Amino acid sequence: MKNLSIKSIKARQVFDSRGLPTLETDIVLEDGSFGRAMVPSGASTGTHEAVELRDGDKNYFHGKGVNKALHSVNEEIASAIKGKNAGDQKSLDEAMINLDGSANKSKLGANAILSVSLAASRAAAASLKIPLYRYIREAFNLKLNSWILPTPMLNVINGGKHADSGLNIQEFMLVPTGASSFSEALRMASETYQTLKKILASKKLSVGVGDEGGFAPHIKTHEEVLGLLSDAILQSGYEGKIKIALDAAASEFCEDGNYTFESKTLSASEMTARYKGWIEKYGLISLEDPLSEDDWSGWKALTAELGSRCKIIGDDIFVTNPQRLAKGIKENAANSILIKLNQIGTLTETVETVLQAQKAGFSCVISHRSGETEDSYIGDLAVALNAGAIKSGAPCRSERLSKYNQLIRIEEELADQSIYSGLAPFRMKAVA
Length: 432
Fold this sequence. Notes:
By secondary structure, this protein is α/β, with parallel strands linked by helices. It folds into two domains: 6-129, 2-Layer Sandwich (Enolase-like, domain 1), CATH 3.30.390; 147-426, Alpha-Beta Barrel (TIM Barrel), CATH 3.20.20. Helices cover 39% and strands 18% of the residues. It contains 13 helices and 16 strands. The strands form four sheets. The chain has an eight-stranded mixed beta barrel, surrounded by four helices. Helix 1 crosses helix 3 (110-128) and helix 3 (110-128) crosses helix 4. The longest helix has 21 residues, at 182-202.
Protein backbone atom coordinates (compact mmCIF):
# COMPACT_ATOMS: atom_id res chain seq x y z
CA MET A 1 0.00 0.00 0.00
CA LYS A 2 1.40 3.42 -0.95
CA ASN A 3 2.52 5.88 1.70
CA LEU A 4 -0.33 8.23 2.57
CA SER A 5 1.48 10.80 4.66
CA ILE A 6 -0.63 13.02 6.92
CA LYS A 7 -0.14 16.72 6.13
CA SER A 8 -2.59 18.41 8.48
CA ILE A 9 -5.10 17.69 11.26
CA LYS A 10 -7.80 20.07 12.42
CA ALA A 11 -10.60 19.45 14.93
CA ARG A 12 -13.55 21.71 15.61
CA GLN A 13 -16.54 21.77 17.94
CA VAL A 14 -19.82 20.95 16.16
CA PHE A 15 -23.19 19.71 17.44
CA ASP A 16 -24.84 16.34 17.80
CA SER A 17 -28.52 15.46 17.48
CA ARG A 18 -29.27 16.62 21.03
CA GLY A 19 -27.77 20.03 20.29
CA LEU A 20 -24.73 19.30 22.46
CA PRO A 21 -21.10 19.86 21.46
CA THR A 22 -19.09 17.10 19.86
CA LEU A 23 -15.93 16.76 17.79
CA GLU A 24 -15.40 16.84 14.05
CA THR A 25 -11.88 16.25 12.74
CA ASP A 26 -10.48 16.90 9.26
CA ILE A 27 -7.33 15.21 7.96
CA VAL A 28 -5.54 16.21 4.76
CA LEU A 29 -2.85 14.00 3.24
CA GLU A 30 0.23 15.17 1.34
CA ASP A 31 -1.45 14.21 -1.95
CA GLY A 32 -4.43 16.45 -1.08
CA SER A 33 -6.81 13.64 -0.14
CA PHE A 34 -9.29 14.60 2.57
CA GLY A 35 -11.09 12.73 5.35
CA ARG A 36 -13.59 13.96 7.93
CA ALA A 37 -15.28 12.22 10.86
CA MET A 38 -17.71 13.20 13.59
CA VAL A 39 -18.06 11.52 16.99
CA PRO A 40 -21.40 10.56 18.59
CA SER A 41 -22.26 10.55 22.29
CA GLY A 42 -24.33 8.21 24.45
CA ALA A 43 -26.87 8.96 27.19
CA SER A 44 -27.28 5.47 28.61
CA THR A 45 -23.56 4.76 28.92
CA GLY A 46 -21.80 1.81 30.49
CA THR A 47 -19.51 2.64 33.40
CA HIS A 48 -16.73 0.61 31.76
CA GLU A 49 -16.66 2.60 28.52
CA ALA A 50 -13.60 4.55 27.39
CA VAL A 51 -13.75 8.14 28.63
CA GLU A 52 -15.52 10.80 26.61
CA LEU A 53 -13.54 13.92 27.52
CA ARG A 54 -15.72 16.93 28.40
CA ASP A 55 -14.71 20.30 29.86
CA GLY A 56 -16.85 20.22 33.00
CA ASP A 57 -17.24 24.05 32.99
CA LYS A 58 -20.86 24.60 34.06
CA ASN A 59 -20.81 28.09 32.55
CA TYR A 60 -19.97 26.72 29.09
CA PHE A 61 -22.55 24.41 27.51
CA HIS A 62 -23.48 23.28 31.05
CA GLY A 63 -20.19 21.42 31.34
CA LYS A 64 -20.57 19.60 28.01
CA GLY A 65 -17.98 21.57 26.04
CA VAL A 66 -15.23 19.66 24.25
CA ASN A 67 -12.38 22.20 24.28
CA LYS A 68 -10.13 19.78 26.20
CA ALA A 69 -10.68 17.13 23.53
CA LEU A 70 -10.10 19.74 20.81
CA HIS A 71 -6.75 20.56 22.39
CA SER A 72 -5.91 16.85 22.46
CA VAL A 73 -6.43 16.63 18.69
CA ASN A 74 -5.06 19.98 17.53
CA GLU A 75 -1.98 19.97 19.75
CA GLU A 76 -0.88 16.64 21.23
CA ILE A 77 -2.21 14.17 18.65
CA ALA A 78 -1.42 16.42 15.68
CA SER A 79 2.19 16.82 16.83
CA ALA A 80 2.54 13.06 17.28
CA ILE A 81 1.10 11.79 14.01
CA LYS A 82 1.77 14.45 11.36
CA GLY A 83 3.85 12.80 8.67
CA LYS A 84 2.68 9.31 9.60
CA ASN A 85 1.10 6.98 7.07
CA ALA A 86 -2.70 7.20 7.23
CA GLY A 87 -2.82 3.91 5.35
CA ASP A 88 -1.25 2.06 8.27
CA GLN A 89 -4.33 2.18 10.48
CA LYS A 90 -3.03 -0.18 13.16
CA SER A 91 0.20 1.77 13.69
CA LEU A 92 -1.65 5.09 13.70
CA ASP A 93 -4.15 3.92 16.31
CA GLU A 94 -1.42 2.31 18.40
CA ALA A 95 0.53 5.57 18.40
CA MET A 96 -2.47 7.45 19.80
CA ILE A 97 -3.17 4.77 22.40
CA ASN A 98 0.44 4.95 23.57
CA LEU A 99 0.37 8.75 23.58
CA ASP A 100 -2.67 8.67 25.86
CA GLY A 101 -1.11 6.03 28.10
CA SER A 102 -4.19 5.45 30.28
CA ALA A 103 -6.30 2.31 30.56
CA ASN A 104 -9.48 4.08 29.42
CA LYS A 105 -8.22 6.93 27.19
CA SER A 106 -8.97 9.44 29.94
CA LYS A 107 -5.93 11.64 29.22
CA LEU A 108 -6.66 12.60 25.61
CA GLY A 109 -10.27 11.42 25.50
CA ALA A 110 -11.73 8.54 23.49
CA ASN A 111 -13.75 11.12 21.54
CA ALA A 112 -10.55 12.92 20.49
CA ILE A 113 -8.71 9.73 19.51
CA LEU A 114 -11.69 8.25 17.66
CA SER A 115 -12.27 11.37 15.57
CA VAL A 116 -8.69 11.14 14.27
CA SER A 117 -8.82 7.37 13.79
CA LEU A 118 -11.94 7.55 11.63
CA ALA A 119 -10.93 10.66 9.70
CA ALA A 120 -7.60 9.05 8.81
CA SER A 121 -9.34 5.98 7.39
CA ARG A 122 -11.58 8.19 5.27
CA ALA A 123 -8.62 10.16 3.97
CA ALA A 124 -6.78 6.95 3.08
CA ALA A 125 -9.83 5.58 1.27
CA ALA A 126 -10.11 8.84 -0.67
CA SER A 127 -6.44 8.70 -1.66
CA LEU A 128 -6.80 5.13 -2.88
CA LYS A 129 -10.05 6.07 -4.64
CA ILE A 130 -12.02 3.20 -3.13
CA PRO A 131 -15.20 3.19 -1.01
CA LEU A 132 -14.71 3.31 2.76
CA TYR A 133 -16.16 -0.17 3.29
CA ARG A 134 -13.65 -1.66 0.83
CA TYR A 135 -10.80 0.28 2.42
CA ILE A 136 -11.59 -0.98 5.94
CA ARG A 137 -11.60 -4.55 4.68
CA GLU A 138 -8.27 -4.06 2.91
CA ALA A 139 -6.66 -2.12 5.77
CA PHE A 140 -7.19 -5.05 8.14
CA ASN A 141 -6.51 -7.73 5.51
CA LEU A 142 -9.90 -9.34 6.04
CA LYS A 143 -10.28 -12.43 3.88
CA LEU A 144 -14.04 -12.40 3.41
CA ASN A 145 -15.66 -13.94 0.36
CA SER A 146 -18.93 -12.04 0.43
CA TRP A 147 -20.50 -8.64 1.00
CA ILE A 148 -23.35 -8.76 3.49
CA LEU A 149 -25.85 -5.93 3.94
CA PRO A 150 -26.84 -5.83 7.63
CA THR A 151 -30.31 -6.40 8.99
CA PRO A 152 -31.53 -3.12 10.52
CA MET A 153 -32.91 -3.00 14.05
CA LEU A 154 -35.13 0.07 14.24
CA ASN A 155 -36.06 1.61 17.58
CA VAL A 156 -39.68 2.71 17.08
CA ILE A 157 -40.80 3.09 20.72
CA ASN A 158 -38.39 4.96 23.01
CA GLY A 159 -38.22 4.58 26.78
CA GLY A 160 -35.60 4.71 29.52
CA LYS A 161 -33.12 7.56 29.14
CA HIS A 162 -34.09 8.11 25.51
CA ALA A 163 -37.52 9.57 26.28
CA ASP A 164 -39.86 10.70 29.06
CA SER A 165 -42.41 7.98 28.27
CA GLY A 166 -42.11 6.44 31.74
CA LEU A 167 -41.22 3.02 30.32
CA ASN A 168 -38.29 1.13 31.88
CA ILE A 169 -37.33 -0.64 28.65
CA GLN A 170 -35.22 1.73 26.57
CA GLU A 171 -35.87 0.47 23.05
CA PHE A 172 -38.61 -1.48 21.33
CA MET A 173 -37.31 -2.39 17.88
CA LEU A 174 -38.67 -3.65 14.57
CA VAL A 175 -36.38 -6.13 12.78
CA PRO A 176 -37.35 -6.80 9.13
CA THR A 177 -35.83 -10.27 8.80
CA GLY A 178 -38.15 -11.38 5.99
CA ALA A 179 -37.04 -8.84 3.37
CA SER A 180 -35.17 -9.85 0.23
CA SER A 181 -32.89 -6.80 0.23
CA PHE A 182 -31.79 -3.99 2.53
CA SER A 183 -33.83 -1.42 0.64
CA GLU A 184 -36.94 -3.61 0.94
CA ALA A 185 -36.23 -4.01 4.66
CA LEU A 186 -36.28 -0.22 5.06
CA ARG A 187 -39.54 0.01 3.13
CA MET A 188 -41.15 -2.60 5.37
CA ALA A 189 -39.92 -0.87 8.50
CA SER A 190 -40.97 2.58 7.30
CA GLU A 191 -44.47 1.42 6.42
CA THR A 192 -44.86 -0.30 9.78
CA TYR A 193 -43.54 2.78 11.59
CA GLN A 194 -46.16 4.95 9.86
CA THR A 195 -48.88 2.40 10.67
CA LEU A 196 -47.78 2.46 14.31
CA LYS A 197 -48.05 6.25 14.27
CA LYS A 198 -51.66 6.01 13.08
CA ILE A 199 -52.48 3.42 15.75
CA LEU A 200 -51.02 5.62 18.49
CA ALA A 201 -52.86 8.68 17.21
CA SER A 202 -56.15 6.75 17.10
CA LYS A 203 -55.68 5.95 20.79
CA LYS A 204 -54.88 9.62 21.51
CA LEU A 205 -51.32 8.69 22.49
CA SER A 206 -48.37 10.99 21.78
CA VAL A 207 -46.62 10.66 18.45
CA GLY A 208 -43.75 12.93 19.49
CA VAL A 209 -40.40 11.23 19.16
CA GLY A 210 -37.51 10.52 21.53
CA ASP A 211 -33.76 10.81 21.00
CA GLU A 212 -33.58 8.00 18.46
CA GLY A 213 -36.66 8.90 16.43
CA GLY A 214 -39.01 6.40 18.03
CA PHE A 215 -42.35 7.43 19.48
CA ALA A 216 -42.51 8.16 23.19
CA PRO A 217 -46.12 7.57 24.31
CA HIS A 218 -47.03 7.38 27.98
CA ILE A 219 -48.14 3.77 28.28
CA LYS A 220 -48.49 2.02 31.62
CA THR A 221 -47.20 -1.44 30.78
CA HIS A 222 -44.53 -2.83 28.51
CA GLU A 223 -46.85 -5.60 27.42
CA GLU A 224 -49.21 -3.01 25.98
CA VAL A 225 -46.35 -1.64 23.88
CA LEU A 226 -45.54 -5.12 22.58
CA GLY A 227 -49.19 -5.54 21.67
CA LEU A 228 -49.19 -2.25 19.74
CA LEU A 229 -46.08 -3.28 17.81
CA SER A 230 -47.64 -6.64 16.97
CA ASP A 231 -50.77 -4.86 15.72
CA ALA A 232 -48.72 -2.48 13.57
CA ILE A 233 -46.83 -5.38 12.00
CA LEU A 234 -50.06 -7.27 11.32
CA GLN A 235 -51.88 -4.25 9.87
CA SER A 236 -48.91 -3.50 7.61
CA GLY A 237 -49.05 -7.01 6.17
CA TYR A 238 -45.67 -8.12 7.52
CA GLU A 239 -46.60 -10.74 10.09
CA GLY A 240 -43.75 -13.25 10.26
CA LYS A 241 -41.50 -10.95 8.22
CA ILE A 242 -40.85 -8.31 10.87
CA LYS A 243 -39.76 -9.42 14.33
CA ILE A 244 -39.59 -7.53 17.64
CA ALA A 245 -36.42 -6.93 19.64
CA LEU A 246 -35.75 -5.15 22.94
CA ASP A 247 -32.95 -3.13 24.48
CA ALA A 248 -33.74 -3.05 28.19
CA ALA A 249 -30.67 -1.02 29.25
CA ALA A 250 -31.33 -2.70 32.60
CA SER A 251 -28.41 -1.02 34.38
CA GLU A 252 -30.58 2.10 34.41
CA PHE A 253 -33.25 0.49 36.61
CA CYS A 254 -31.04 -1.79 38.72
CA GLU A 255 -29.90 -0.99 42.23
CA ASP A 256 -28.18 -3.33 44.69
CA GLY A 257 -28.85 -6.32 42.45
CA ASN A 258 -32.60 -5.73 42.19
CA TYR A 259 -34.60 -4.29 39.32
CA THR A 260 -37.31 -1.66 39.75
CA PHE A 261 -39.66 -2.56 36.95
CA GLU A 262 -43.20 -1.21 36.51
CA SER A 263 -43.09 -0.07 40.17
CA LYS A 264 -42.16 -3.57 41.37
CA THR A 265 -38.87 -4.86 42.73
CA LEU A 266 -37.72 -7.92 40.80
CA SER A 267 -34.69 -10.20 41.05
CA ALA A 268 -32.59 -11.21 38.05
CA SER A 269 -34.42 -14.53 37.88
CA GLU A 270 -37.78 -12.77 37.99
CA MET A 271 -36.70 -10.46 35.16
CA THR A 272 -35.62 -13.54 33.22
CA ALA A 273 -39.05 -15.07 33.72
CA ARG A 274 -40.66 -11.85 32.46
CA TYR A 275 -38.54 -11.91 29.31
CA LYS A 276 -39.26 -15.60 28.79
CA GLY A 277 -42.97 -14.88 28.80
CA TRP A 278 -42.55 -12.16 26.20
CA ILE A 279 -40.42 -14.42 23.98
CA GLU A 280 -43.16 -17.04 24.06
CA LYS A 281 -46.00 -14.59 23.46
CA TYR A 282 -44.48 -12.07 21.07
CA GLY A 283 -41.64 -14.03 19.44
CA LEU A 284 -38.88 -11.64 20.53
CA ILE A 285 -35.80 -12.15 18.38
CA SER A 286 -33.22 -10.54 20.67
CA LEU A 287 -32.73 -9.06 24.13
CA GLU A 288 -30.07 -6.41 24.61
CA ASP A 289 -28.79 -5.62 28.11
CA PRO A 290 -31.62 -7.56 29.79
CA LEU A 291 -29.72 -7.34 33.10
CA SER A 292 -27.27 -4.94 34.73
CA GLU A 293 -23.74 -4.46 33.38
CA ASP A 294 -22.04 -6.19 36.34
CA ASP A 295 -24.64 -8.88 37.07
CA TRP A 296 -22.47 -11.63 35.58
CA SER A 297 -24.20 -14.49 37.42
CA GLY A 298 -27.58 -13.22 36.27
CA TRP A 299 -26.41 -12.94 32.66
CA LYS A 300 -25.01 -16.45 32.74
CA ALA A 301 -28.25 -17.91 34.11
CA LEU A 302 -30.40 -15.89 31.70
CA THR A 303 -28.31 -16.98 28.69
CA ALA A 304 -28.48 -20.61 29.80
CA GLU A 305 -32.27 -20.41 29.93
CA LEU A 306 -33.05 -18.16 26.95
CA GLY A 307 -29.94 -18.18 24.76
CA SER A 308 -31.08 -21.04 22.55
CA ARG A 309 -34.32 -19.21 21.74
CA CYS A 310 -33.26 -15.58 21.49
CA LYS A 311 -30.10 -13.57 20.88
CA ILE A 312 -28.76 -12.19 24.17
CA ILE A 313 -26.84 -9.04 23.21
CA GLY A 314 -24.29 -7.48 25.54
CA ASP A 315 -23.77 -3.72 25.37
CA ASP A 316 -23.04 -2.16 28.77
CA ILE A 317 -21.62 -5.44 30.04
CA PHE A 318 -19.03 -5.62 27.20
CA VAL A 319 -18.65 -1.98 26.03
CA THR A 320 -16.80 -3.13 22.88
CA ASN A 321 -13.93 -4.12 25.17
CA PRO A 322 -11.96 -7.28 24.29
CA GLN A 323 -11.17 -8.15 27.92
CA ARG A 324 -14.79 -7.94 29.03
CA LEU A 325 -15.91 -9.81 25.92
CA ALA A 326 -13.39 -12.58 26.65
CA LYS A 327 -14.94 -13.03 30.09
CA GLY A 328 -18.43 -13.15 28.57
CA ILE A 329 -17.35 -15.78 26.06
CA LYS A 330 -15.69 -17.89 28.75
CA GLU A 331 -18.69 -17.73 31.08
CA ASN A 332 -21.39 -18.06 28.38
CA ALA A 333 -22.83 -14.78 29.64
CA ALA A 334 -24.35 -13.84 26.24
CA ASN A 335 -24.26 -14.95 22.61
CA SER A 336 -24.02 -11.60 20.84
CA ILE A 337 -22.29 -8.24 21.27
CA LEU A 338 -23.23 -4.66 20.47
CA ILE A 339 -20.39 -2.73 18.86
CA LYS A 340 -19.99 1.01 19.41
CA LEU A 341 -16.88 2.76 18.10
CA ASN A 342 -16.76 5.38 20.85
CA GLN A 343 -16.94 2.80 23.65
CA ILE A 344 -13.39 1.70 22.86
CA GLY A 345 -12.01 4.69 20.94
CA THR A 346 -10.21 3.49 17.79
CA LEU A 347 -11.13 1.76 14.56
CA THR A 348 -8.44 -0.90 15.11
CA GLU A 349 -9.71 -1.93 18.55
CA THR A 350 -13.28 -2.00 17.25
CA VAL A 351 -12.39 -4.30 14.35
CA GLU A 352 -10.36 -6.58 16.62
CA THR A 353 -13.29 -6.89 19.03
CA VAL A 354 -15.65 -7.81 16.18
CA LEU A 355 -13.23 -10.47 14.93
CA GLN A 356 -12.85 -11.85 18.46
CA ALA A 357 -16.63 -12.12 18.81
CA GLN A 358 -17.13 -13.72 15.41
CA LYS A 359 -14.41 -16.28 16.10
CA ALA A 360 -16.24 -17.29 19.29
CA GLY A 361 -19.55 -17.68 17.45
CA PHE A 362 -21.06 -14.48 18.80
CA SER A 363 -23.13 -12.40 16.41
CA CYS A 364 -22.38 -8.67 16.18
CA VAL A 365 -24.61 -5.62 15.95
CA ILE A 366 -22.97 -2.36 14.84
CA SER A 367 -24.63 0.50 16.72
CA HIS A 368 -25.18 4.24 16.72
CA ARG A 369 -25.49 6.34 19.91
CA SER A 370 -28.47 8.34 21.16
CA GLY A 371 -26.55 11.59 20.61
CA GLU A 372 -25.76 11.07 16.92
CA THR A 373 -24.44 13.06 13.98
CA GLU A 374 -25.00 13.03 10.23
CA ASP A 375 -21.83 10.94 9.85
CA SER A 376 -22.71 7.61 8.19
CA TYR A 377 -19.47 5.77 9.09
CA ILE A 378 -21.09 2.81 10.84
CA GLY A 379 -22.97 1.87 7.66
CA ASP A 380 -19.67 1.26 5.86
CA LEU A 381 -18.23 -0.45 8.94
CA ALA A 382 -21.09 -2.96 9.11
CA VAL A 383 -20.60 -3.94 5.47
CA ALA A 384 -16.81 -4.07 5.72
CA LEU A 385 -16.97 -6.55 8.60
CA ASN A 386 -20.00 -8.56 7.43
CA ALA A 387 -21.39 -7.73 10.86
CA GLY A 388 -24.87 -8.95 10.00
CA ALA A 389 -26.95 -6.39 11.90
CA ILE A 390 -27.03 -2.65 12.55
CA LYS A 391 -28.88 -0.36 14.96
CA SER A 392 -29.37 3.24 13.90
CA GLY A 393 -32.73 4.19 15.37
CA ALA A 394 -36.15 4.69 13.85
CA PRO A 395 -36.81 5.48 10.18
CA CYS A 396 -37.06 9.12 11.30
CA ARG A 397 -34.59 12.03 11.79
CA SER A 398 -31.71 12.53 9.39
CA GLU A 399 -28.95 11.58 11.84
CA ARG A 400 -30.55 8.12 11.99
CA LEU A 401 -31.42 7.83 8.32
CA SER A 402 -27.95 8.92 7.16
CA LYS A 403 -26.69 5.44 8.07
CA TYR A 404 -29.60 3.64 6.43
CA ASN A 405 -29.37 5.82 3.32
CA GLN A 406 -25.65 5.06 3.04
CA LEU A 407 -26.45 1.35 3.15
CA ILE A 408 -28.96 1.80 0.34
CA ARG A 409 -26.19 3.43 -1.73
CA ILE A 410 -23.76 0.64 -0.90
CA GLU A 411 -26.33 -2.01 -1.83
CA GLU A 412 -26.88 -0.28 -5.17
CA GLU A 413 -23.12 -0.05 -5.79
CA LEU A 414 -22.47 -3.70 -4.95
CA ALA A 415 -25.53 -4.87 -6.89
CA ASP A 416 -25.52 -8.66 -7.24
CA GLN A 417 -22.23 -8.95 -5.34
CA SER A 418 -24.07 -8.48 -2.02
CA ILE A 419 -26.67 -10.39 -0.06
CA TYR A 420 -29.08 -9.18 2.60
CA SER A 421 -28.46 -10.70 6.02
CA GLY A 422 -32.13 -11.15 6.94
CA LEU A 423 -32.67 -13.73 9.66
CA ALA A 424 -29.09 -15.09 9.61
CA PRO A 425 -27.64 -13.02 12.52
CA PHE A 426 -30.52 -14.07 14.75
CA ARG A 427 -30.45 -17.81 14.19
CA MET A 428 -30.16 -19.57 17.52
CA LYS A 429 -27.47 -21.93 18.67
CA ALA A 430 -27.64 -24.00 21.80
CA VAL A 431 -25.50 -22.64 24.64
CA ALA A 432 -22.65 -24.99 25.60
